Amino acid sequence: MADLKTQTSDTPFSVWVEDVEPQQRREEARVLDELFRRVTGFEAQVWTGGIVGYGAYDYTYASGRSGTWMATGFAPRKAKLSIYIMPGYTDFGPILDRLGPHSRGKSCLYITRLQRVDLDVLGELIAAGVQDLASRWPVRARASLDKGQPL
User: For the domain that residue 108 is a member of, what is the CATH number?
Assistant: First the structure.
């Protein structure tokens, strides 16, 4: 089985966020960190690829593929913020209708400017996503850094 390219890092969020560019994304990352910590109760865990995760879960698919992934999180990309709502099976349309300007993929929400969305609604969406995930897989506070395998 191929190793996952995205893995956890031991870099603290407070150090990692200082390198986020441009400055607007750095400030948005700080706002999102506060929101995710408040909503999930989990501390930030930096993953490779510029992703910040909150909580983690182990999965095994019917195909036998297994691994560990973040329960929820975000990535402050230059063009858009990527918000990860796992696993992406539930229709959160009624919440998304109240959010503000966004686009979406299966498990990802894209926001161009954080100030244009309703942060209370975004918090509601994050909480709903974690609750939906926890109904399928046990969610814990962190992905392990000492398993000796990629996460």
Answer: 3.90.1150
> Is there a domain that residue 1 lies in?
no
Q: List, for the chain, all residue ranges whose pLDDT scores fall below the cut of 70.
A: 1-5, 145-151
Q: What is the pLDDT of residue 105?
A: 83
Inter-residue contact 98 to 57 (CB < 8 Å): no
The pLDDT assigned to 19 comes to 96
Count the Cβ atoms, other than its own, within 10 Å of residue 139. Answer: 21
Give me the phi and psi of 81, to 5 degrees please. Answer: -85, 135
Per-residue pLDDT tens over the stretch 47-57: 999 999 999 99
Phi/psi of residue 16, nearest 5 degrees: -60, -45
Is residue 11 included in any domain, yes or no? no
Full residue range of the structural domain in which residue 89 is found: 21-140
Query: How much is the pLDDT for 3?
Result: 55
pTM of the model as a whole: 0.89
Please, which residues bridge with residue 109 across strands? Answer: 83, 104
Instruction: For residue 119, count CB atoms less than 10 angstroms from its CB and return exposed for 0-12, middle for 13-18, buried for 19 or more.
Output: middle
The number of domains in the chain is: 1
What does the alpha-carbon distance between residue 59 and residue 37 come to, in Å, rounded to a whole number? 23
